[in-house]
Design goal:
The complex is a heterodimer of chains A (334) and B (260).
Chain A (H helix, E strand, L loop, with lengths): L8 E5 L1 E2 L2 E2 L1 H17 L3 E7 L6 H6 L4 E6 L8 H15 L3 E5 L2 H13 L4 E5 L1 E4 L6 E7 L4 E6 L6 E5 L16 E4 L12 E7 L11 E5 L6 H13 L3 E4 L1 H5 L20 E5 L5 H4 L7 E6 L6 H4 L2 E4 L2 H17 L1
Helix pairs in contact in A: 3-4, 5-9
Chain B lengths: L1 E5 L2 E3 L5 E2 L6 E2 L5 E3 L1 H17 L2 E7 L5 H10 L3 E5 L9 H15 L3 E5 L10 H9 L3 E10 L4 E8 L2 E8 L2 E5 L11 H9 L3 E3 L19 E6 L8 E3 L3 H14 L4
The chains are: A alpha/beta (334), B alpha/beta (260).
Chain lengths: 334, 260
């Protein structure tokens, strides 16, 4: 393998039912920055069926070229057709870097592709940078349950592949004046290998996406029960935000998994994160530490969350939240 | 039916602490456990065995002390246990690990290969899909539930962020299982007695047909450039005041930050 043969950054842009997933756009934004540093181009790999009309959006979000692959077998994600398509795009076009969103789909696809093209893959990165000295991709990720950060490199194989969780990178502002090219790509599928059949896809109703919220009122063990949860909801409503939670509340069944923040939940970066009755275990902190402003309310002044919060209030959330909600209502009426 | 479950011994990361002075992990006194997702996978194997009859083999690649989780597996009901251990396997990343395991799997033979979704020390979720690729068999990850038709077809409920998917696949195949999908059974008394009688088979690279240059650190495309403790953000202000005053403090800050 000659490293010089590999250049440009490929981003896998995931769509579900034709809807482009935000993480793909976030990665285009990051790829743009890395590509500008290297003097290379950003390619979006866009796979699906009847999705062509959206390809130009990817240019508006930072892609120079869109590698469009359309096939019936790509309408709903399964491992093998997607792996064949991505592996062929990589083998034909030799990118230096490949980025994939760390969703349930990306985490199924990424390792299958990296093993097929025989290269390394770094999972769930929180930071991607081009090292100024060696011009290699340095990918930093949490390890040991978030207790430690590790910077991983892939020096002798190409492409350098990394996955990034949704919400970690920021997408560019949409610019419909950006120019780019959409390239239709043909894949030589080996359909004998398509062995997994999707019977049905069931969506949970009333989807809320806490990663999109500007304000999150988040509850932990200290919220205790459904009554406590209602106090969070009332405050979130006044602040035009959403309720989220630590793992403790999901395990007790008070909260839905889709509202969970942290290593096994979602990564969020709202303008305001209010941690109520959350101690701040490292697994939780990993999912919210990039929030712009953090307020913690906790009975325990030695709770780890107090170390992280911009404003820490030692006190009883069951008293503070209702009064805060009431006063905010008055305040906003003024 | 031959089921092989790949398991890993991991430090219980919920017990890991950082030395605030040196910024390094304090490993002393941290218990080693069977990785929770793997244990869920073993439970699935044992349920299939209970219902349909199967030979359940567990395999782990690791240091000699990983024998503990193999004995635990036998005490839960596994039939055979393999410890793949060799200095040549040291320092392996996920690609080199999955390659070595694929060599062992080819020796063992299998209808169904089960892995955990991910291990709590690395959280990569890569070894399962990479192993499936080396074996050239289909994979279904994020398994929440699974029905076997008694012949060769599995109908699997697969977790997605926004719901789930029902998929169908024929064996041979690989599935990766979530800890929350199957509550592992306890070890039985007779199992605990038996697990000390039963032999743990210790394999090294001579037992598997693999290319040595693809093993261990040498065979790993990725390596760790550096590791470090997370930078602690500068501490903000902490107040211990009456409720009324606390509320005023919060409102003033929200105004100052233009959040309201």
């Amino acid at each position: 393998m000659n490293k010089e043969d590999y250049k440009n950054i490929f981003v896998f842009v995931e769509q579900r039912e034709g809807k482009i997933q935000n993480v793909g756009l976030e990665l285009l934004g990051k790829a743009r920055e890395l590509a500008d540093n290297l003097g290379q181009e950003v390619y979006a790999m866009f796979l699906g069926h009847n999705i062509k009309s959206q390809a130009n959006d990817l240019i508006a979000y930072g892609a120079d070229k869109v590698l469009l692959v359309e096939d019936e077998s790509l309408a709903v994600y399964t491992t093998e057709p997607y792996t064949q398509a991505i592996a062929q795009l990589i083998n034909d076009r030799k990118p230096s870097i490949v980025l994939i969103g760390s969703t349930t789909i990306g985490r199924d696809l990424g390792p299958r592709v990296s093993a097929r093209v025989n290269t390394g893959l770094t999972a769930d990165c929180t930071k991607l940078e081009i090292n100024e000295e060696d011009k290699e991709l340095w990918s930093t990720r949490p390890a040991f349950g978030g207790n430690l950060m590790a910077t991983i490199v892939c020096p002798n194989h190409r492409p350098q592949m990394s996955t990034v969780r949704p919400g970690v990178m920021q997408k560019m502002a949409k610019d419909t004046n950006r120019k780019g090219e959409v390239i239709d790509c043909n894949i030589n599928f080996n359909k004998d290998k398509f062995k997994v059949k999707v019977l049905e896809t069931v969506k949970k109703e009333a989807n809320i996406d806490i990663t999109e919220a500007k304000v999150l009122v988040s509850g932990g063990r200290g919220v205790a029960n459904k009554e406590g949860f209602k106090k969070l909801e009332a405050l979130a409503e006044v602040l035009k935000g959403e309720v989220s939670s630590s793992r403790a509340m999901v395990d007790t069944g008070i909260m839905d998994h889709e509202r969970q923040v942290g290593q096994t939940g979602k990564t969020v970066r709202p303008n305001l994160y209010m941690a109520c009755g959350i101690s701040g275990a490292i697994q939780h902190v990993a999912g919210m530490e990039s929030s712009d402003y953090i307020i913690a309310i906790n009975k325990d002044k030695y709770a780890p969350i107090m170390q992280l919060a911009d404003l820490g209030i030692v006190g009883d959330l069951h008293k503070i939240l209702p009064l805060l909600t009431e006063k905010l209502q008055q305040e906003l009426k003024k | 039916m031959n089921i092989v479950v790949c398991i890993k011994q991991v430090p219980d990361t919920t017990e890991v602490k950082i030395d605030p002075k040196t910024g390094t992990l304090i490993r002393e006194g941290v218990p080693s456990i069977m990785n929770p997702d793997d244990k869920g996978g073993l439970e699935l194997a044992l349920r299939l065995k209970d219902e349909f009859g199967a030979k359940v083999t567990v395999i782990t690649m690791g240091l000699p002390q990983a024998e503990a989780i193999l004995r635990e597996s036998i005490a839960m009901g596994a039939d055979r246990a393999i410890l793949l251990t060799d200095r040549k396997l040291g320092g392996a990343d996920t690609l080199a690990t999955s390659y070595a395991l694929s060599g062992a799997l080819k020796e063992l033979g299998y209808d169904l290969v089960i892995t955990g979704r991910q291990a709590i020390d690395g959280d990569t979720a890569q070894v399962g899909p990479e192993l499936a690729e080396h074996l050239d068999i289909p994979q279904v990850t994020y398994l929440e539930d699974c029905k076997f038709d008694g012949n060769k077809t599995l109908t699997i409920k697969k977790q997605l962020e926004d719901g789930y998917q029902m998929v169908q696949v024929d064996m041979p195949c690989l599935v990766s299982v979530l800890a929350s999908s199957y509550k592992p059974r306890y070890m039985t008394v007779s199992g605990i007695v038996e697990c000390y009688d039963k032999e743990i088979e210790v394999w090294n690279v001579d037992n598997i047909k693999v290319e040595e240059e693809k093993l261990g650190k040498k065979g790993s495309p990725t390596n760790v450039k550096k590791s470090f403790a997370k930078a602690v953000k500068g501490q903000g202000e902490v107040f211990e005041v009456e409720t009324e005053e606390a509320v005023n403090l919060i409102i003033n800050k929200l105004k100052e930050k233009h959040i309201i």
